[in-house]
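REQUEST FORM: STRUCTURE PREDICTION
Request ID: SP-0412
Submitted by: Lab K.M.
Chain count: 1
Length (residues): 497
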Amino acid sequence: MKRIIATLAALLSPCLAAGQKASPPSPAQVAQAVREYRMENEDRIVRELSEFLAIPNVASDTPNIQKNAAHLVEMLEARGIETHPLPVTGRGPVVFGKLISAEAKRTVIFYAHYDGQPVDPTAWTDGSPFEPVLRSAAIEAGGKRIPFPASGAGTRSVYNDDWRIYARSASDDKSPIVALLAALDALRVKRIPLAVNLKVIFEGEEEAGSPNLQKTLELHKNLLGADLLVTADGPVHQSGRPLVFFGNRGDIGIDLTVYGPVRALHSGHYGNWAPNPAMELSRLLASMKDPDGHVLIDGYYDDVTPLGEAEKRALAEMPDNDADLERELGIAKPEGGGKKLVELIMEPSLNIRGLRSAYVGVQAQNVVPDKAEASLEARLVKGEEPRKKFEQIATFIGRQGFFVVDHEPATEERRAHERIAKVVDVVKGAAGKDTVIMPSTGGSVPMYIFDDLGLPWVGVPIVNYDNHQHSSDENLRLGHFWRGMEIYGAILADLNW
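STATUS: Completed
RESULT:
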């Protein structure tokens, strides 16, 4: 892990003299070689990424997920990577590959996922999440839709660094996969040997909580011998600087439904009399946090493992860019009671990720709704157990006067209890000088599985922080993509520690 930090620090150093010779090449020299290759092959690289993005990849869409896996196998085998799709019943396989280097003494595994979050095409500016669109800048910055440069438009760079590709998984996680493969192409063309044996693990269920990953890997544990695992998931730091992280928060999902009458009722005839579940749910959710965002559920912070001195030092050395983020995001006052973002990421959180009850806008109807639904997520930190966290939340809901069930309530139950809440556990997981070193990232990738398998790991994300990850208009800034190729190329050529 120290070697990766040293590699990135050297990669970012401006002091490499032009034409300087080294044996083996330094990280900065490797980056320059990858850059030269990229500038001569941008059209091919972007075309490969666009073709990959055009395959729908929502985790629950098994037929298309399997198409993604088959396409991915073709991409790997085209590089001479020995590839083995590890089957998952009724789902897309875990795609495993290995590339052995005669000069390597160590083995590194790269992990990423090829599935993506669900999409609502109506929420996308261009209306087509799986038809990659090129824009001259971010939509928020007034970026205009522009055509992809014609194939064979030149032998040098034709893509501007600030241009962005819009499509589901443009940043999370298909572009890091293509960046890694393009880096391999560059090293081969530039005759720079791999310093490590490379293995890859690409899964198709990460956005669904990786329910089959651990079982699949344990069945094929003989394939997993390695010295280090690098995860490509996540964005770079909000300052734009490269990021290395050593932990991630866990994540549990909770579906919460509050009930009113057995059918929606006319609000003129029954308003002020029939209990309104949307109002009841609003009161319940509001009772869970104070105005500063502190969770009020009993015991919510009790099991958190205190930060060590090394973690505290790393947090203190991270860029303080909260004010810039507040301006960019239009936030007058953030939550947290004055704590910085990097401090709050080290704490458990509770988020309302969606609300629904009857209709709004042009579809609004004059009714008392029959039910109101919320989707919650709780991010976990070191020391916390997913099941205990769920029980804390469910117990709190019961103490607010709700009869808690895990099923659709029967008529007898609705008649017997004034307030009923269905609470369903949908567990998603378990618990260089210009390089930002982060003890834990806010996202939740299934690294606990690799911990259980005895593999040390580190995160080296490459995509822009403002990529709309998990939202509509997901995008990739090409300058970050190009730099990611250089970073991955330098790591592969410099990790023979």
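NOTES: The chain has two domains: 2-248+445-494, 250-427.
Reviewed by: T.R.
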